[in-house]
Structure formats: C-alpha cells, structure tokens
C-alpha cells in the first residue's frame, strides 16, 4: 500500500456512518446485524408485478433533510454551522445515492470528533474517496420518462448533478470543507472496498492526514431489478423476503438487490493520537486483483479472490493465523458462495478450526457499490465489540461448502475476541478487493 519511496504511515479508523436497510445509522445497523434481523422486504419503490423478483433491501423511514443531533462547524468556530446533511433544496438537486451517502458521511465525520479540532487542521490535508457503482439510475429512468412526455424543456437543469457518480464525493467535500484529493471509484461490487484501500494508500504515502471514504448505491428501479432478474441473478423467494438471502445454504437462489451507504473516517495514526481520537481499528492491509476469467462469474476456486486476500495479508504484515474473522462477500448466489468459500478455505487452511466466516448480506442484501464498505463495517465492529454477526437463513448448508470445514456462523452471533479481520468484496468484470483491519 505504501509508495516505494515514502515511509509507510499507519492508518486508523476514527469515525463510522451508515444508512442501510437494517438501520438509518451505524449503531442501528450494527444492532440489527448482531440480532440477526433482516432488512429485506417487498419492493415499495415501484410496482414489481410481472417481475420474477419482487423483493429488495430498501432504506425505510429515511429523511435526508433531518436535523443533526448537534450542529457541526467544519469551517471552524466562526464558520456557518452545518445543521443537516441535506437541505430541502439539496434533496431536489441530488440523486438518492447522494442523499444516502452524504448522511452516512456526515455521521462518520461527527462520530470522529474531528469537528472540535477544525480550527487547527488544514483542510488541504483532508480528502474524499467515495465509491458509487451505477450512479443515479432512478433519476435517469424518471428523467427519460419526463423527456418523452414533456420534451426537452422539461429536462431538469440538475439532471447531471443527480446522476454523476462523483457528485457524492464532491458534495461531501463541500459540506465538510475537505480540500484535499477528491475522487470516486467505480468497480462494480468491489467499488467501496477499492475506495477504502486507495484512500488508505493516500494517507500512507503522505498525500493526506484524513480521508472520508466508503461507498453508496441506490438502484432499486424497474430497469435494475428487471435486468438482474433477466440474468437470473436475483432470488425469487418473493413470499418470504426475510429468508430470501441465504449464503451457503443449499436452497439459495440468488442475491437480493439493496441500497444504502457506509462511510468511514480514515486518519493517520499519530494525527489521531495527537487529538485524542477514539480509534476503532487499524486498516493494515489492502489487496486488489483481477480474475481475467469471466465478466460476471468468479474464476474457478476464486483464484483471483485468493490472491487479493493473500496480498492484503502480506501488506498488513500478518499471517492467516492472525485472522479471527472473515467478513465474506457471500452474495447468496449458487455459484459465487462456493467459489469464495473455497478460496477462503485455501488461504486459511491452517487456521480453519478457529476462524469464523459470515455473510451479512443475508440481512442487508447486496448494496452493490456500498458492499465493500459494508463488509469492512462488520469487520471493524467485530473487533471493537468482540462479537461476530451471523449468517442468517443458513438452515441446510450446501454440501460443497460443508466439505470445506469452515465455520459460517449460522443464525446466531458469536462472542469471541477478534484481533484482526479480513473483508472481501468482488465485482463484475472479475475485480476483487480485500481489506485487513486489526486492533491497534
């Protein structure tokens, strides 16, 4: 992760924010995951009649213009107070993925305690890297209908702002006055895993002291659901939404499309210590690889995924035996789960007896561009609390998965000390990301 010519600096996590189908904040989401509570339900965003898949992980009861519990002052004590992540005007201006992402980013910033020190922190040393996989697809679909019925004059002047994936990062930098590097990663379902790894690398090579990083997605639309359904990638367990996502179960029949955002504050270790920050964990290693095999299927044995895990471990300076928990990509697809599990069993062959693996997409569904950050969220909080969330709906383990000898943490959370954890995210195009986080 470090630049060859620069001394490697250590990166820690000092703030977390989340808006997911399981909760509209990081604490609410974590409580649901530990309780094994699903956020999947029938689609309410549109009429899904006629589609084979009619369920999704929608973010519910979310007000993007809600007031913050405490006003923030990212431009210093004399600057204008930030009282909400989105004004009502902003809600109309931006797409839903930005609504979700901005809320999570502001929560992470508030959680970090950075706001109390902004008068002494140079904004040019604080950057943003927020990943978005597909951008404003709901707004694209709606505006196309508007154009068809009303013509060119009815197209909103804010349309490009609503759909461009990097506008989330741009809006967060504007809200929080982060004037360092500002960018957005798009690498399918590995998007926010890559965003976090690249943001950490920026700190390690001394390009920044603080980075806001993670990902967001909101694509529960007729075209997205319909397209994934036509690929036969989605679960059709419409009569039992909460049981539809079931990684490693022999009766799994596809993933559940979801929306949401998870965002972190990453900070250079000594920078965090000087201001007395509360530290969740250290982001020690990042691996990225390509399968070069197939556009939408993992390579046999998830060979590329295994390489990304090994690379992350090597860069972290840890061995497989140092890892207590793997937050797996585990989408609940018939092929993918077994391939990833095979790769995990290969990488951690000497550590299987004490390793726990779980797939929280069984509760959250698949956040696409937000999935990598969701996996990291689970890994980080498992370290903090010494508890591993379960893989729910794992009633009859797939014989292939069972033969690997891994503990998939079925149906109930497990309490045990977690010294270090690894989080995986893999995406269409054969792209892979693995992150290693550990106790400081």
Give an account of the 3D structure:
With 440 residues, this protein is an alpha/beta fold. It has 2 domains: 11-281, Peroxisomal Thiolase, Chain A, domain 1; 285-438, Peroxisomal Thiolase, Chain A, domain 1. It has 14 helices and 16 strands. It has helices spanning 26-35, 88-93, 96-112, 137-150, 159-163, 167-176, 191-204, 222-230, 269-274, 303-316, 336-347, 361-364, 371-385, 399-402; strands at residues 11-19, 41-42, 55-56, 67-72, 82-84, 126-132, 182-183, 210-217, 260-268, 281-290, 325-327, 356-358, 387-388, 414-415, 420-427, 431-438. The chain has a 10-stranded mixed sheet, with helices on both faces. It has a two-stranded antiparallel sheet with strand order 2-3. The chain has a two-stranded antiparallel ribbon with strand order 4-5. Helix 11 (336-347) links the parallel strand 11 (325-327) and strand 12. Helix 10 (303-316) crosses helix 11. The longest helix is centred in the N-terminal third of the chain and has 17 residues, at 96-112. The chain is globular, with a radius of gyration of 20 Å. The chain starts with 10 loop residues before the first strand and ends with a strand.
């Amino acid at each position: 992760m470090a630049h060859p010519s620069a001394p490697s600096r250590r990166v820690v996590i000092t703030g977390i924010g989340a808006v997911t189908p399981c909760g509209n904040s990081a604490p609410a989401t974590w409580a649901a995951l530990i309780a094994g509570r699903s956020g999947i339900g029938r689609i309410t965003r549109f009429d899904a009649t006629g589609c084979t898949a009619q369920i999704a992980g929608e973010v519910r009861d979310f007000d993007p213009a809600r007031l913050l519990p405490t006003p923030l002052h990212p431009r210093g004590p004399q600057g204008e107070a930030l009282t909400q992540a989105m004004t009502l005007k902003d809600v109309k201006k931006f797409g839903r993925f930005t609504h979700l992402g901005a809320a999570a980013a502001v929560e992470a910033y508030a959680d970090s305690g950075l706001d109390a020190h902004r008068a002494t922190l140079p904004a040019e040393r604080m950057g943003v890297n927020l990943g978005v996989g597909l951008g404003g697809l709901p707004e694209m679909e709606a505006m196309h209908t508007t154009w068809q019925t009303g013509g060119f004059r009815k197209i909103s002047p804010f349309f490009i702002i609503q759909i461009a994936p990097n506008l989330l990062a741009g809006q967060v930098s504007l809200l929080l006055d982060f004037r360092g590097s500002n960018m957005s990663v798009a690498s399918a379902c590995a998007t926010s895993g890559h965003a976090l790894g690249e943001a950490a690398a920026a700190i390690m090579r001394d390009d920044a002291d603080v980075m806001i990083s993670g990902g967001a997605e909101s694509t529960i639309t007729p075209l997205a659901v319909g397209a994934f359904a036509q690929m036969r990638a989605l679960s059709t367990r419409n009569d039992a939404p909460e049981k539809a996502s079931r990684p490693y179960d022999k009766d799994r029949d596809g993933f559940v499309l979801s929306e949401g955002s998870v965002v972190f504050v990453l900070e250079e270790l000594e920078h965090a210590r000087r201001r007395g920050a509360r530290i969740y964990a250290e982001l020690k290693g990042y691996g990225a690889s390509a399968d070069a095999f197939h556009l939408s299927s993992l390579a046999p044995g998830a060979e590329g995924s295994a390489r990304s895990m090994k690379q992350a471990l090597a860069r972290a300076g840890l061995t497989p035996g140092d890892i207590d928990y793997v937050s797996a990509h585990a989408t609940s697809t018939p092929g993918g789960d077994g391939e990833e599990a095979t790769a995990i069993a290969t990488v951690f062959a000497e550590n299987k007896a004490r390793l726990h693996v779980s797939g929280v997409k069984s509760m959250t569904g698949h956040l696409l561009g937000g999935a990598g950050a969701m996996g990291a969220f689970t890994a980080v909080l498992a370290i903090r609390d010494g508890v591993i969330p379960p893989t729910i709906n794992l009633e009859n383990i797939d014989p292939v998965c069972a033969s690997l000898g891994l503990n998939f943490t079925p149906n109930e959370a497990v309490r045990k000390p977690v010294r270090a954890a690894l989080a995986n995210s893999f995406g269409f195009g054969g792209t892979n990301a693995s992150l290693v986080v550990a106790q400081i």
